[in-house]
Amino acid sequence: MVNIFFRIIFSFLLVMLLLLLLMNDKVALGQDGDPVGSTQGGGGREMVPALFIFGDSLIDNANYYPYGIDFNGGPTGRFSNGYTMVDEIAELLGLPLIPAYSEASGAQVLHGVNYASATTGILDITGRNFVGRVPFDQQIRNFQNTLDQVTDNLGASDVSNAIARCIFFVGMGSNDNLNNYLRPNYNTKNQYNAQQYADLLVSEYSRQLTTLYNLGERKFVLAGLGRMGCIPSILAQNQMDRCSEEVNQLVMPFNANVKTMINNLNANLPGARFTFIDIARMFEDLLTNYRSYGFSVIDRGCCGIGRNGGQITCLPFQTPCANREQYVFWDAFHPTEAVNIMFGRKALYGDQSVVYPMNIQQLTSL
User: What is the pTM of this model?
Assistant: First the structure.
């Protein structure tokens, strides 16, 4: 009886939350007599009803100090010293910070869910030596679970209309290289060259994104791979203290394939709008012109151990550098909040040299 009671209460809450979401969507569209829109969320007008996030640790939560910041009176971590790129994007869209799938409940799911998981990738086998990872296929199934719950209570038509106006952010592929292709305990490098591996990854990626499209998603933002050969973890393996061109060469065919895939999906999936954030170009500009952006350290992590602060990544309760706002990298793998905020703003407002074929602000108006 207790379980049945709680299921009834939970179903009631889901119905109420979806009704609120749909009402909010109508307000943003200028319906119900209010052409201005809602002013809830991140402090400004809500540009979209919700933001749903899929990816890896670049946009996932961490669970120990000194990662992250204190959002609500307690430590809610990020793999950064503060905001991730999607945190900044959510705020610029007028939304609150998006809760993780494992922690989202009640009113927290009103503006979206973050399904991202550290060490995970496009391929299910990526990161298999890490416990608790959630590969992209499983992240999609988790979204399906969320969608099924609300659809059962509200109805497919209303849910479909709301979902089609939301933004779906996907950042995948880094770990398919760092925790698969470049790992000695995988045979992947012996099976594929860089182009063949990029072809394999993007073929799977296209299938997965089409699955999300078939679940009702229409507005997609895909983050490309950054200059992975220049992160502290890779620099620490190079006695010359230089970026690894071998690793950076893995990035180029993947990003090129993703842009081609986006063109194909936009042409072949009715109503779909895919856009690509060129993280590699942003990073290349940043590493070349870092002083003009206010940074002074580009070759080591603010929190880490060994050469370049990248041989062992930031440990629990480790004391990070004092001048973290001057660092490009927070730890062995991830950028600092300052970089994340800069990239998030470029994703929202940038021109086609960094966001193709349109920026997120333009995407929200379609």
Answer: 0.85
